[in-house]
Design goal:
There is one protein chain. The protein is α/β, with parallel strands linked by helices. 44% of the residues lie in helices and 16% in strands. It has one domain (4-246): TIM Barrel (Alpha-Beta Barrel). The chain has helices at 16-28, 44-54, 80-85, 96-101, 106-119, 131-135, 139-150, 156-160, 180-195, 199-204, 215-222, 239-246, and strands at 4-9, 36-41, 59-63, 90-93, 122-127, 163-166, 207-210, 229-232. Strands 1-2-3-4-5-6-7-8 form an 8-stranded parallel beta barrel, surrounded by 6 helices. The chain binds 1,3-dihydroxyacetonephosphate. Residues 9, 95, 167, 172-173, 210-213, 231-235 line the site of 1,3-dihydroxyacetonephosphate (13P).
């Protein structure tokens, strides 16, 4: 039985007042499910405050990105140590929005993931194809390259500490979800690719699906054998919807 993770990626949302009201909604609501690791990833500026609100609760905290550098003259960057001191234990890396708007490459994501692991942060490494790549039947080629590149040099132990999220770019924020069968096919493919690093670690690795996950479509996705949770964008900004997804498990 693999760990099931429901993670909320708040993206560029979550001022302090918004963070307070959303987290109170989750803490006061029925957001605890013993089968599920529940995680929220607010923006950097709300992490410390979120950590205070969540202390002692079942909800874990992650960041949405981090620097590949440990410290130094990198204006605007946030380091792994900084994330750890504000209570983050997970970090999303290589999200398609970082790849698209900040030109992040597999090589950079790999460097960030290695640093995160060395520091004791659990990386959630994102992969996924563009619409035109899917239409050209290049999904496996694209996702396979991303998996190999972002996990390059990983040991079995490093895979064991990691999480992968498959987010088809055409399904993010569009309301178009991959069908459970389409998603399952890619998740199975990813697990096979990771098995090239270590077959046991591939079996225990949580692979999350992301892209327009809502309370209404979560159960169908989560019942697939290789889908081990969800990375939720829009629906993680409403406590009732996020709780609905947690309880779809
Ligand atoms: P949406 O759930 O808004 O489609 O976003 C998915 C996503 O990008 C999560 O990281």
């Amino acid at each position: 039985m693999r760990e099931i993770i429901i993670a909320g990626n708040w993206k560029l949302n979550g001022t302090i007042p918004e963070t307070e009201s959303l987290l109170k909604g989750l803490l006061d609501g029925n957001s605890q499910n013993d089968k599920v690791t529940v995680l929220v990833c607010p923006p950097y500026t709300s992490l410390h405050y979120a950590h205070k609100l969540l202390e002692g609760s079942h909800i874990k905290l992650g960041a949405q990105d981090m620097s590949a550098h440990e410290k130094g003259a990198y204006t605007g960057e946030i380091s792994a140590d900084m994330l750890l001191t504000v209570g983050a234990r997970y970090v999303i890396l290589g999200h398609s929005e970082r790849r698209q708007y900040h030109a992040e490459t597999d090589e950079l994501v790999n460097a960030k993931a290695k640093l995160a692991l060395a520091k004791g942060l659990r990386p959630i490494i994102c992969v996924g194809e563009l619409l035109e790549q899917r239409e050209r039947n290049q999904t496996e080629e694209v996702v396979g390259t991303q998996v190999a590149g972002t996990l390059s040099g990983f040991t079995a132990e490093m895979v064991q500490q990691s999480v992968i999220a498959y987010e088809p770019v055409w399904a993010i924020g569009t309301g178009k979800t991959a069908t459970p069968e389409m998603a399952q096919e890619v998740h199975k493919f990813i697990r096979e690719r990771v098995a090239a690093v270590d077959s046991n670690a591939a079996q225990t690795l949580p692979i999350l699906y992301g892209g327009s996950v809502k309370p209404g479509n979560a159960a169908g996705l989560l019942e697939q054998p290789d889908i081990d949770g969800a990375l939720v964008g829009g629906a993680s900004l409403k406590a009732a919807d996020f709780i609905g997804i947690i309880n779809a498990v």
